[in-house]
Amino acid sequence: MIRRSIGKWFAHYQYSEKAKINLFCFVFAGGSPTFFFVWKNLFPEEINVLSVLYPFREKRIAEPMPKTTEELVSDFIRDNEKMLFGKPWAVWGHCSGALIGFETAAAMQEQGHPASAFVVSGCEAPESALDRLMLSNDFSSITDEDILNDLLLFGLVDPQLVRDEDFRNYFFPIYRADLEMFRNYRYDKSKKLSVPSIVMHGTEDKMVSAERSRLWAEVPGGQMEFREFHGGHYFVNDHKEEVRDKFSALLCGL
Fold this sequence. Notes:
The protein has helices at residues 69-79, 81-86, 97-110, 126-132, 144-153, 165-183, 210-214, 240-252, and strands at 21-26, 47-51, 89-94, 117-121, 197-202, 224-229.
């Protein structure tokens, strides 16, 4: 049975009570769960692809973004306790979404309900990622133009799209709110995930290096597989079938 609505925290998803595992997908700073839209029709029926919708965007535009990742994760777990505990579950985080996914998995593990698997794409290990997220002490001095230049430099946005005033008016406040939240993030090195994990990296990613991505090996306590794919920061969009097969082999084999 497919449920039409599973709450405010999810959008562009596919959910069936008969599925074997829930895959929670966490998007990057400034991002929307539409990033994962295509995946819901690519995975086998055994896997529910659940794109997490943060506050302050789409249908939750009127809700402020939490000031800390701890608050965001705590709210997410509290509001979705039955779903998280209802069946096996896994995490997929792209770019900085991997940090939110990691903290969610770590918090759930502490509560005695660990994830079955953890998947990262396009993100360095936590300490390196935080160094990269433009989190200076004087964040207020960073202009929209500064942000735009970085986004274009690393190939994170379509140059045509950012010329659209409506897009800029919508996107920049969200992106700033997300970066403010990450500025308050403090990574606890003692946290380890005792689950199998996959870390995926794009060989042409201008923002995330392979060396720093490999440092995730120091974070999960379980077995970690590192995979490289040809492409830039959004390489997963160019390797959908291969990425899907890698996920499916991991998740359906649990």
